[in-house]
Amino acid sequence: MPIVTVHPSGEVIYLDPDETVLSGLYKAGYAYAVGCRRGGCAVCKVDCLRGRFHYNHPIADTVLTAGERADGTCLTCRAVPDGDITIEMRNEDLRLINPFLRQLNEKARVRAKSVVSGTESKEQ
Amino acid sequence: MGIMRMGYAHVRVTDMAEAKDHYANTLGLYEVLEEDGRVYYKGWDEWDHHSVVLEEGGVGLVKFGFKVQYEYDIDDIEKKAETFGCIVERMSKGENPEVSDGIRIHTPSDHLFEVYHAQTVLGTEVGTHNPESFPRHLVGVGVPAIDHALITCEDVKGMERFLTETFSFYATERVQTSLEPDADYIGTWMTSGNQIHQLAVIAGPQGKLHHFAFKLADWNEVGHAADLFSMDDVPIDVGPTRHGITRGQTVYFFDPAGNRNEVFAGGYTSFPDRPVSIWTPDQIGKGIFYHSRELNDRFTSVLT
Predict the structure, then answer these.
(1) Three-state SS for B106?
(2) Does residue A118 sit in helix, strand or coil?
(3) Could you read off the pLDDT tens digit of each residue along chain B, which spans 304 residues?
(4) Would you call B21 an interface residue with chain A, using a CB distance cutoff of 8 Å?
(5) From the candidates A27, A38, A91, which should be mutated to test the interface with B, based on the most B CB atoms within 10 A?
(6) Chain B environment of A35 (Cβ under 8 Å)
(7) Which residue of A has its CA nearest to B60?
(8) Is the ipTM of this complex over 0.85?
(9) Residue B55 forms beta bridges with which residues?
(10) What does the alpha-carbon distance between residue B30 and residue A36 come to, in Å, rounded to a whole number?
(11) Which residues of A touch B300 (CB under 8 A)?
């Protein structure tokens, strides 16, 4: 289960498998500058500092240059992490707009972590 | 009368299956042809063969088609575009399926405009003999027809001059840097007939598409369309709201490739002799989005 760590503010967010970074961050209650949410405009790019991801749709050359495909640029609306990743926002921090979702995401992340480490109690 | 209307928008989409679902099932366009990796659509109240062409691969605009009333209008516009300094090519009948011969103009804004005089007539979905008011079993929004488009370029004033001199368009509204006679233009809304706008141009990068729009009847239909976009998880950019400019009611939304679409209702009847409405930069927020009175951060940045 991928975990996204967000620089510079340090949020740690749990993503469902096959979920895009954009979708995961919004489902965890966060917002940031996004555009069309469908891979057409390039507004939601961040930098991937650590970890790997793939795109779940073809990305137009007008949206992502050849250089950007190799330099860690991450078009978040189409990027699905292959494991834990660390990203850095470009122009602004994430804004928490729905703390209720943030709490649920935190619980899901802790539960996933305990499953992985084998410390999950039987009641859970 | 020269140009009658914007007849078709041809755009690129990254995933044809998703795009077809959007344009056919959410917007309710009728698929009329699939050929050579392109899918052609018409709205229920359109009689010509197609008004939307989707092409797989990439995103953004390929070209627009503008329909003239008479074949000889083509020669007239060809001469005017060449005089203006544009590269103009002749196109043959059938280069676009079911579309007549015509010309292809490389505009000063770095867009491609085709001008044609005929398409194969399929007829509206209600016909011409004692027609009902609308088809009984529309799908999704059930848009009747394409309406207009907004494009970007670096020299809006120059593009207004091009559209005036070659297409005989006139401006209905403008955003200007000032009210002085030497003001530069930030945006212009242009038409040939009584439709409030057929093509609008705002300052931005050359050759880009801001949106293309479909016609709806009124506020209720615009609200209903927005409801359907929520049901179908279509990203809504803005709305439902009103534009100060044109007075039209609107929802901006994105197709599955990120091209911006609009459903647009209302807009007052325009005439060439009506004094142009002028908006100043401090009121541009109200001009674009009449209720929030500010631009969102996508308005100028999200282009395809």
Answers:
(1) strand
(2) coil
(3) 799 999 999 999 999 999 999 999 999 999 999 999 999 999 999 999 999 999 999 999 999 999 999 999 999 999 999 999 999 999 999 999 999 999 999 999 999 999 999 999 999 999 999 999 999 999 999 999 999 999 999 999 999 999 999 999 999 999 999 999 999 999 999 999 999 999 999 999 999 999 999 999 999 999 999 999 999 999 999 999 999 999 999 999 999 999 999 999 999 999 999 999 999 999 999 999 999 999 988 988 899 9
(4) no
(5) A38
(6) 258, 298, 301-302
(7) A40
(8) no
(9) B12, B38
(10) 25
(11) none
- Interface touch A35/B301, C-beta < 8 Å: yes
Q: What is the DSSP string of B111-172?
A: -EEEEES-B-B---TT-SSS--SS-TT--TT---EEEEEEEEES-HHHHHHHHHHHH--EEE
Across the interface, of B58, B260, B297, the residue whose CB is closest to A36 is B260
Would the CB atoms of B301 and A58 count as touching at under 8 Å?
Answer: no
CB contact set of B280 (below 8 Å; sequence gap of 6+): B175, B176, B178, B179
B42 CB near a chain A CB, below 8 Å?
no
pTM metric for this prediction: 0.92
